[in-house]
Amino acid sequence: DAGVTQSPTHLIKTRGQQVTLRCSPKSGHDTVSWYQQALGQGPQFIFQYYEEEERQRGNFPDRFSGHQFPNYSSELNVNALLLGDSALYLCASSSLAGDTGELFFGEGSRLTVL
Amino acid sequence: GNSVTQMEGPVTLSEEAFLTINCTYTATGYPSLFWYVQYPGEGLQLLLKATKADDKGSNKGFEATYRKETTSFHLEKGSVQVSDSAVYFCALNNNDMRFGAGTRLTVKP
Lengths: 114, 109
Fold this sequence. Notes:
heterodimer; A: mainly beta; four-stranded antiparallel β-sheet; globular; B: mainly beta; 0% helix
């Protein structure tokens, strides 16, 4: 049973560019959450998707957007990249119906903005 | 809003020492509480959880009790090992998961 998978694992962009990160949830999960983890910090909640709609959103600007597909996979898009967007981006999946609140995390996509 | 405050690190202990990492939370309603661990070079893994007041979560010798009266969920282990060296995150879920800043633990032989 595959866990949460994310791609790419590492990428380098320059300021002003746009980036798309991808996530496939754990089998049987229908909810995907995205987090930003800066070096030495805890994960910060970006948003959560369920049934292809944004269900919850953290305190992130509109430059951060997302999408969930019918197969529950998800994308995180960041436009007009800033140096401060350099971080590890984590995807987590869960099952809303059997919700004990536990999230299953992928290993992340490390974004470096130059 | 919902938030978690955890003990700042880093924490350095000798093998077999007793570990406590403090965690307090602010939330409306009745959140579920979690400890996640991040080993070097790996993603976050669930260590233990508690879903209601007075519940005790336990795993791999670690324990934490959901204390509603003190809004706390402190992590403890009676005898740490070198392999416990990692970053530990306290978290709460009240519609969405919020994490503390993390506490880096280093255990020396």
